User: Which sequence fits this backbone?
Protein backbone atom coordinates (compact mmCIF):
# COMPACT_ATOMS: atom_id res chain seq x y z
CA UNK A 1 0.00 0.00 0.00
CA UNK A 2 1.15 3.53 -0.78
CA UNK A 3 -0.08 6.86 0.61
CA UNK A 4 -0.84 9.43 -2.08
CA UNK A 5 -2.75 12.64 -2.63
CA UNK A 6 -5.64 12.47 -5.07
CA UNK A 7 -3.91 14.98 -7.36
CA UNK A 8 -0.94 12.58 -7.65
CA UNK A 9 -3.00 9.90 -9.42
CA UNK A 10 -5.27 12.09 -11.56
CA UNK A 11 -4.90 14.15 -14.69
CA UNK A 12 -7.22 16.86 -13.43
CA UNK A 13 -9.86 17.65 -10.81
CA UNK A 14 -12.30 20.38 -11.74
CA UNK A 15 -15.95 21.26 -11.34
CA UNK A 16 -18.76 22.44 -13.59
CA UNK A 17 -19.58 25.89 -14.87
CA UNK A 18 -19.70 28.72 -12.34
CA UNK A 19 -22.74 30.37 -13.89
CA UNK A 20 -25.90 29.51 -15.75
CA UNK A 21 -26.60 28.29 -19.24
CA UNK A 22 -29.52 29.10 -21.49
CA UNK A 23 -32.10 26.35 -21.42
CA UNK A 24 -33.43 24.70 -24.57
CA UNK A 25 -35.85 21.80 -24.33
CA UNK A 26 -34.99 18.70 -26.36
CA UNK A 27 -31.64 20.07 -27.51
CA UNK A 28 -29.87 16.88 -26.51
CA UNK A 29 -27.20 18.84 -24.59
CA UNK A 30 -27.34 18.25 -20.84
CA UNK A 31 -26.44 20.55 -17.94
CA UNK A 32 -26.16 18.17 -14.98
CA UNK A 33 -26.41 19.25 -11.33
CA UNK A 34 -25.78 17.35 -8.10
CA UNK A 35 -29.44 16.25 -7.96
CA UNK A 36 -28.93 14.23 -11.16
CA UNK A 37 -25.99 12.20 -9.80
CA UNK A 38 -26.89 9.26 -7.54
CA UNK A 39 -26.73 5.46 -7.31
CA UNK A 40 -23.48 5.41 -9.29
CA UNK A 41 -25.00 6.95 -12.42
CA UNK A 42 -26.01 10.18 -14.13
CA UNK A 43 -29.80 10.32 -14.25
CA UNK A 44 -31.02 12.26 -17.25
CA UNK A 45 -34.77 12.00 -16.59
CA UNK A 46 -35.11 15.45 -15.00
CA UNK A 47 -31.86 17.00 -16.22
CA UNK A 48 -31.81 20.46 -17.80
CA UNK A 49 -31.08 20.71 -21.50
CA UNK A 50 -29.24 23.74 -22.85
CA UNK A 51 -28.28 25.38 -26.12
CA UNK A 52 -25.46 23.90 -28.19
CA UNK A 53 -23.55 27.17 -27.94
CA UNK A 54 -23.63 27.18 -24.13
CA UNK A 55 -22.75 23.49 -24.06
CA UNK A 56 -19.65 24.02 -26.17
CA UNK A 57 -18.56 26.83 -23.88
CA UNK A 58 -19.13 24.86 -20.66
CA UNK A 59 -17.59 21.69 -22.11
CA UNK A 60 -14.24 23.46 -22.48
CA UNK A 61 -14.03 23.24 -18.67
CA UNK A 62 -15.40 19.76 -18.01
CA UNK A 63 -14.52 17.71 -21.14
CA UNK A 64 -16.42 14.69 -19.88
CA UNK A 65 -15.05 11.31 -20.98
CA UNK A 66 -15.65 7.61 -20.16
CA UNK A 67 -14.10 6.52 -16.85
CA UNK A 68 -14.23 10.01 -15.38
CA UNK A 69 -15.46 10.00 -11.79
CA UNK A 70 -18.15 12.43 -10.67
CA UNK A 71 -18.40 13.61 -7.07
CA UNK A 72 -21.18 15.90 -5.83
CA UNK A 73 -19.40 18.65 -3.93
CA UNK A 74 -22.23 20.77 -2.49
CA UNK A 75 -25.60 20.08 -0.91
CA UNK A 76 -25.43 16.31 -0.45
CA UNK A 77 -21.67 15.70 -0.48
CA UNK A 78 -20.14 12.57 -1.93
CA UNK A 79 -22.69 11.05 -4.29
CA UNK A 80 -20.60 9.51 -7.06
CA UNK A 81 -20.84 8.12 -10.56
CA UNK A 82 -18.41 6.39 -12.89
CA UNK A 83 -18.98 7.77 -16.38
CA UNK A 84 -19.88 5.19 -19.02
CA UNK A 85 -19.01 5.12 -22.70
CA UNK A 86 -22.49 6.10 -23.89
CA UNK A 87 -23.85 8.46 -26.59
CA UNK A 88 -24.99 11.07 -24.03
CA UNK A 89 -21.52 11.30 -22.47
CA UNK A 90 -20.21 13.53 -25.27
CA UNK A 91 -23.24 15.81 -24.86
CA UNK A 92 -23.03 16.26 -21.09
CA UNK A 93 -21.57 19.07 -19.02
CA UNK A 94 -22.05 20.19 -15.42
CA UNK A 95 -23.03 22.86 -12.97
CA UNK A 96 -20.48 23.74 -10.30
CA UNK A 97 -22.14 21.39 -7.76
CA UNK A 98 -20.42 18.42 -9.45
CA UNK A 99 -16.68 17.76 -9.48
CA UNK A 100 -15.07 15.81 -12.32
CA UNK A 101 -12.10 13.63 -11.41
CA UNK A 102 -10.04 12.34 -14.36
CA UNK A 103 -7.92 9.34 -13.28
CA UNK A 104 -4.40 8.90 -14.62
CA UNK A 105 -4.75 5.33 -15.94
CA UNK A 106 -0.97 4.84 -15.87
CA UNK A 107 -1.07 5.18 -12.08
CA UNK A 108 -4.50 3.93 -11.07
CA UNK A 109 -7.25 1.76 -12.59
CA UNK A 110 -10.28 4.10 -12.90
CA UNK A 111 -12.82 1.61 -11.54
CA UNK A 112 -10.57 0.95 -8.55
CA UNK A 113 -10.26 4.68 -7.84
CA UNK A 114 -14.05 5.03 -8.08
CA UNK A 115 -14.59 2.38 -5.40
CA UNK A 116 -11.73 3.72 -3.30
CA UNK A 117 -13.33 7.18 -3.28
CA UNK A 118 -16.72 5.64 -2.43
CA UNK A 119 -15.09 4.14 0.66
CA UNK A 120 -13.94 7.65 1.67
CA UNK A 121 -17.29 9.45 1.51
CA UNK A 122 -17.33 10.01 5.27
CA UNK A 123 -13.89 11.63 5.10
CA UNK A 124 -15.05 13.84 2.23
CA UNK A 125 -18.02 15.02 4.26
CA UNK A 126 -15.87 15.75 7.30
CA UNK A 127 -13.48 17.82 5.20
CA UNK A 128 -16.25 19.95 3.66
CA UNK A 129 -16.62 23.64 4.48
CA UNK A 130 -19.61 25.93 4.87
CA UNK A 131 -21.97 26.82 7.67
CA UNK A 132 -25.35 27.03 5.91
CA UNK A 133 -24.49 24.62 3.09
CA UNK A 134 -21.53 22.26 3.03
CA UNK A 135 -19.10 22.55 0.12
CA UNK A 136 -16.26 20.23 -0.79
CA UNK A 137 -13.57 22.51 -2.19
CA UNK A 138 -11.52 21.43 -5.18
CA UNK A 139 -8.34 22.28 -3.27
CA UNK A 140 -9.45 19.93 -0.49
CA UNK A 141 -10.10 17.16 -2.99
CA UNK A 142 -6.76 17.62 -4.72
CA UNK A 143 -4.84 17.38 -1.43
CA UNK A 144 -7.00 14.54 -0.08
CA UNK A 145 -4.69 11.74 1.14
CA UNK A 146 -5.41 8.01 1.06
CA UNK A 147 -3.76 4.62 0.91
CA UNK A 148 -3.85 2.85 -2.46
CA UNK A 149 -2.84 -0.57 -3.70
CA UNK A 150 0.21 -0.01 -5.92
CA UNK A 151 -0.16 -3.05 -8.18
CA UNK A 152 -2.45 -2.22 -11.12
CA UNK A 153 -3.38 -5.88 -11.63
CA UNK A 154 -4.52 -6.15 -8.02
CA UNK A 155 -6.43 -2.88 -8.40
CA UNK A 156 -8.21 -4.36 -11.43
CA UNK A 157 -9.08 -7.56 -9.55
CA UNK A 158 -10.53 -5.62 -6.62
CA UNK A 159 -12.62 -3.47 -8.95
CA UNK A 160 -13.90 -6.54 -10.81
CA UNK A 161 -15.18 -8.11 -7.59
CA UNK A 162 -17.10 -4.96 -6.64
CA UNK A 163 -18.30 -4.38 -10.22
CA UNK A 164 -20.13 -7.71 -10.18
CA UNK A 165 -22.36 -6.42 -7.40
CA UNK A 166 -23.08 -3.20 -9.28
CA UNK A 167 -23.79 -5.10 -12.52
CA UNK A 168 -26.44 -7.18 -10.73
CA UNK A 169 -27.89 -4.07 -9.10
CA UNK A 170 -28.14 -2.31 -12.47
CA UNK A 171 -29.81 -5.37 -13.98
CA UNK A 172 -32.43 -5.40 -11.23
CA UNK A 173 -32.93 -1.64 -11.62
CA UNK A 174 -33.63 -2.14 -15.33
CA UNK A 175 -36.17 -4.84 -14.47
CA UNK A 176 -37.84 -2.50 -11.97
CA UNK A 177 -38.08 0.23 -14.61
CA UNK A 178 -39.83 -2.15 -17.02
CA UNK A 179 -42.23 -3.27 -14.29
CA UNK A 180 -42.99 0.34 -13.34
CA UNK A 181 -43.75 1.09 -16.98
CA UNK A 182 -46.13 -1.89 -17.07
CA UNK A 183 -47.93 -0.64 -13.96
CA UNK A 184 -48.13 2.85 -15.48
CA UNK A 185 -49.65 1.53 -18.72
CA UNK A 186 -52.26 -0.43 -16.76
CA UNK A 187 -53.15 2.61 -14.63
CA UNK A 188 -53.45 4.84 -17.70
CA UNK A 189 -55.70 2.36 -19.50
CA UNK A 190 -58.07 1.98 -16.54
CA UNK A 191 -58.10 5.44 -14.97
CA UNK A 192 -56.92 7.99 -17.55
CA UNK A 193 -58.43 6.52 -20.70
CA UNK A 194 -61.28 5.04 -18.57
CA UNK A 195 -61.10 1.69 -20.35
CA UNK A 196 -61.62 -0.34 -17.18
CA UNK A 197 -63.57 -3.64 -17.28
CA UNK A 198 -67.23 -2.88 -17.89
CA UNK A 199 -66.63 0.71 -18.98
CA UNK A 200 -68.95 0.32 -21.99
CA UNK A 201 -71.99 -0.18 -19.75
CA UNK A 202 -71.02 2.17 -16.91
CA UNK A 203 -72.89 5.50 -16.90
CA UNK A 204 -70.88 8.70 -16.45
CA UNK A 205 -72.43 11.02 -13.84
CA UNK A 206 -70.89 14.45 -13.15
CA UNK A 207 -67.78 13.45 -15.14
CA UNK A 208 -67.25 10.31 -13.02
CA UNK A 209 -68.19 6.70 -13.68
CA UNK A 210 -71.19 5.64 -11.63
CA UNK A 211 -70.37 4.64 -8.01
CA UNK A 212 -67.00 6.44 -8.12
CA UNK A 213 -66.45 9.24 -5.62
CA UNK A 214 -64.48 12.47 -5.66
CA UNK A 215 -63.76 13.98 -2.24
CA UNK A 216 -60.81 15.24 -0.21
CA UNK A 217 -58.01 12.79 0.55
CA UNK A 218 -58.79 13.03 4.29
CA UNK A 219 -62.29 11.65 3.58
CA UNK A 220 -60.84 8.38 2.30
CA UNK A 221 -57.69 7.95 4.38
CA UNK A 222 -56.41 8.13 7.90
CA UNK A 223 -53.76 10.80 7.39
CA UNK A 224 -50.88 12.05 9.52
CA UNK A 225 -47.73 14.13 9.09
CA UNK A 226 -44.21 13.29 10.20
CA UNK A 227 -42.19 15.13 12.81
CA UNK A 228 -38.51 15.83 13.53
CA UNK A 229 -37.26 15.86 17.15
CA UNK A 230 -34.82 18.67 18.07
CA UNK A 231 -31.40 17.72 16.72
CA UNK A 232 -29.70 19.93 19.30
CA UNK A 233 -30.64 17.36 21.92
CA UNK A 234 -28.32 14.36 21.66
CA UNK A 235 -29.41 10.76 21.77
CA UNK A 236 -32.66 10.81 19.79
CA UNK A 237 -31.14 9.64 16.48
CA UNK A 238 -29.14 6.46 16.02
CA UNK A 239 -27.87 3.93 13.49
CA UNK A 240 -29.03 0.90 15.51
CA UNK A 241 -31.15 -1.39 13.34
CA UNK A 242 -33.42 -2.05 16.35
CA UNK A 243 -34.58 1.58 16.29
CA UNK A 244 -37.25 3.00 13.96
CA UNK A 245 -36.22 3.88 10.38
CA UNK A 246 -36.62 7.65 10.01
CA UNK A 247 -37.53 8.56 6.44
CA UNK A 248 -36.60 11.86 4.81
CA UNK A 249 -37.37 12.99 1.27
CA UNK A 250 -33.94 11.86 0.07
CA UNK A 251 -34.76 8.28 1.14
CA UNK A 252 -37.75 8.34 -1.25
CA UNK A 253 -35.81 9.38 -4.34
CA UNK A 254 -36.93 7.21 -7.27
CA UNK A 255 -37.87 4.23 -5.09
CA UNK A 256 -41.30 2.63 -4.89
CA UNK A 257 -40.46 0.91 -1.61
CA UNK A 258 -38.58 2.62 1.21
CA UNK A 259 -36.51 -0.14 2.74
CA UNK A 260 -33.32 1.61 3.76
CA UNK A 261 -32.70 4.95 5.46
CA UNK A 262 -29.70 7.00 6.54
CA UNK A 263 -30.94 7.48 10.11
CA UNK A 264 -33.10 5.86 12.76
CA UNK A 265 -35.10 7.34 15.61
CA UNK A 266 -35.07 5.78 19.05
CA UNK A 267 -38.34 4.46 20.42
CA UNK A 268 -37.86 6.81 23.38
CA UNK A 269 -37.75 9.79 20.99
CA UNK A 270 -40.94 8.64 19.26
CA UNK A 271 -42.72 8.41 22.62
CA UNK A 272 -41.29 11.62 24.05
CA UNK A 273 -42.03 13.82 21.02
CA UNK A 274 -45.19 12.02 19.93
CA UNK A 275 -43.69 11.00 16.58
CA UNK A 276 -46.09 8.65 14.80
CA UNK A 277 -44.76 5.27 13.74
CA UNK A 278 -46.75 4.25 10.67
CA UNK A 279 -47.24 0.58 9.76
CA UNK A 280 -45.78 -1.36 6.85
CA UNK A 281 -47.78 -0.64 3.70
CA UNK A 282 -48.41 3.03 4.49
CA UNK A 283 -48.09 5.26 1.44
CA UNK A 284 -45.74 8.22 1.91
CA UNK A 285 -46.01 11.49 -0.04
CA UNK A 286 -43.46 14.31 0.07
CA UNK A 287 -44.96 17.79 -0.04
CA UNK A 288 -42.18 20.24 0.88
CA UNK A 289 -39.22 21.34 -1.27
CA UNK A 290 -39.66 18.24 -3.46
CA UNK A 291 -43.38 17.71 -4.02
CA UNK A 292 -44.73 14.44 -5.30
CA UNK A 293 -42.29 11.71 -4.35
CA UNK A 294 -44.42 8.70 -3.47
CA UNK A 295 -43.24 5.47 -1.83
CA UNK A 296 -44.60 2.58 0.19
CA UNK A 297 -43.19 1.94 3.66
CA UNK A 298 -41.66 -1.53 3.46
CA UNK A 299 -41.59 -1.76 7.27
CA UNK A 300 -42.85 0.36 10.18
CA UNK A 301 -41.25 3.81 9.85
CA UNK A 302 -41.47 7.39 11.04
CA UNK A 303 -40.81 10.41 8.84
CA UNK A 304 -39.89 14.06 8.97
CA UNK A 305 -42.49 16.83 8.73
CA UNK A 306 -42.19 17.09 4.93
CA UNK A 307 -43.95 13.76 4.39
CA UNK A 308 -47.65 12.87 4.64
CA UNK A 309 -48.90 9.36 5.48
CA UNK A 310 -51.88 7.74 3.74
CA UNK A 311 -53.47 4.78 5.58
CA UNK A 312 -56.73 2.87 5.05
CA UNK A 313 -58.20 -0.44 6.22
CA UNK A 314 -57.67 -3.44 3.96
CA UNK A 315 -55.19 -3.86 1.12
CA UNK A 316 -57.06 -3.44 -2.17
CA UNK A 317 -56.66 0.36 -2.22
CA UNK A 318 -52.89 0.45 -2.06
CA UNK A 319 -51.85 -0.10 -5.68
CA UNK A 320 -54.42 2.38 -7.00
CA UNK A 321 -53.49 5.03 -4.42
CA UNK A 322 -49.80 4.60 -5.17
CA UNK A 323 -50.36 5.17 -8.88
CA UNK A 324 -52.91 7.96 -8.37
CA UNK A 325 -50.47 9.94 -6.22
CA UNK A 326 -47.59 9.24 -8.60
CA UNK A 327 -49.63 10.63 -11.50
CA UNK A 328 -51.19 13.60 -9.71
CA UNK A 329 -50.50 17.11 -11.06
CA UNK A 330 -49.28 18.81 -7.89
CA UNK A 331 -48.91 22.17 -9.62
CA UNK A 332 -52.70 22.41 -9.41
CA UNK A 333 -52.42 22.67 -5.61
CA UNK A 334 -50.54 25.97 -5.81
CA UNK A 335 -47.73 27.19 -3.56
CA UNK A 336 -48.88 28.51 -0.20
CA UNK A 337 -45.91 27.90 2.05
CA UNK A 338 -43.54 30.60 0.79
CA UNK A 339 -41.03 27.86 0.01
CA UNK A 340 -40.28 27.07 -3.61
CA UNK A 341 -42.16 24.02 -4.85
CA UNK A 342 -43.99 23.28 -1.63
CA UNK A 343 -47.53 23.11 -0.31
CA UNK A 344 -48.70 22.79 3.27
CA UNK A 345 -50.16 19.79 5.09
CA UNK A 346 -53.69 21.24 5.15
CA UNK A 347 -53.72 21.41 1.35
CA UNK A 348 -52.41 17.85 1.09
CA UNK A 349 -55.14 16.56 3.40
CA UNK A 350 -57.73 18.43 1.34
CA UNK A 351 -56.35 17.58 -2.09
CA UNK A 352 -58.96 16.19 -4.49
CA UNK A 353 -58.99 12.41 -4.59
CA UNK A 354 -60.99 10.19 -6.93
CA UNK A 355 -61.89 6.81 -5.42
CA UNK A 356 -63.21 4.16 -7.84
CA UNK A 357 -65.90 1.68 -6.89
CA UNK A 358 -64.93 -1.36 -4.83
CA UNK A 359 -65.16 -3.80 -7.74
CA UNK A 360 -62.80 -1.67 -9.85
CA UNK A 361 -60.36 -1.26 -6.94
CA UNK A 362 -60.40 -5.02 -6.39
CA UNK A 363 -59.88 -5.72 -10.07
CA UNK A 364 -56.99 -3.26 -10.40
CA UNK A 365 -55.35 -4.67 -7.29
CA UNK A 366 -55.61 -8.20 -8.69
CA UNK A 367 -53.95 -7.10 -11.94
CA UNK A 368 -51.31 -4.77 -10.53
CA UNK A 369 -50.30 -6.38 -7.23
CA UNK A 370 -48.15 -9.10 -8.91
CA UNK A 371 -46.24 -6.30 -10.69
CA UNK A 372 -45.82 -4.26 -7.50
CA UNK A 373 -44.75 -7.37 -5.54
CA UNK A 374 -42.06 -8.12 -8.14
CA UNK A 375 -40.78 -4.58 -7.74
CA UNK A 376 -40.73 -5.08 -3.96
CA UNK A 377 -38.75 -8.33 -4.27
CA UNK A 378 -36.23 -6.76 -6.65
CA UNK A 379 -35.89 -3.75 -4.36
CA UNK A 380 -35.05 -6.12 -1.50
CA UNK A 381 -32.45 -7.85 -3.68
CA UNK A 382 -30.89 -4.47 -4.51
CA UNK A 383 -30.79 -3.53 -0.82
CA UNK A 384 -29.11 -6.83 0.11
CA UNK A 385 -26.54 -6.55 -2.69
CA UNK A 386 -25.79 -2.93 -1.79
CA UNK A 387 -25.28 -3.79 1.86
CA UNK A 388 -23.02 -6.75 0.97
CA UNK A 389 -20.96 -4.60 -1.41
CA UNK A 390 -20.63 -1.79 1.13
CA UNK A 391 -19.47 -4.23 3.83
CA UNK A 392 -16.90 -5.71 1.46
CA UNK A 393 -15.66 -2.39 0.09
CA UNK A 394 -13.50 -1.14 3.01
CA UNK A 395 -12.08 -4.62 3.63
CA UNK A 396 -10.90 -4.93 0.05
CA UNK A 397 -9.51 -1.42 0.00
CA UNK A 398 -7.60 -1.84 3.25
CA UNK A 399 -6.14 -5.21 2.21
CA UNK A 400 -7.97 -7.02 5.03
CA UNK A 401 -9.41 -9.29 2.32
CA UNK A 402 -7.11 -10.24 -0.54
CA UNK A 403 -8.19 -11.06 -4.11
Assistant:
Amino acid sequence: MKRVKLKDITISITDGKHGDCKGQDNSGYYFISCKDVFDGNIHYENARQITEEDFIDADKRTKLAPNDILVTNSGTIGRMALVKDAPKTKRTTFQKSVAIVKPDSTRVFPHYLYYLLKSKVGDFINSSNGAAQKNLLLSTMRDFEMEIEENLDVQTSIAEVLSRYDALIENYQRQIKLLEEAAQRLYKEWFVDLRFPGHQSTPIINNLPQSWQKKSAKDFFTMSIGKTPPRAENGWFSTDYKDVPWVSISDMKDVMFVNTTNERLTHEACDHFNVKIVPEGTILLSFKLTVGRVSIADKPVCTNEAIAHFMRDGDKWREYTLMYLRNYHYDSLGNTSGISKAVNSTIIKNMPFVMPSKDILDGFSKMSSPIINQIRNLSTQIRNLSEARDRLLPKLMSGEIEV
Observations:
- The radius of gyration is 24 Å.
- The first helix runs from residue 52 to 62.
- The chain is about 35% helix and 20% strand.
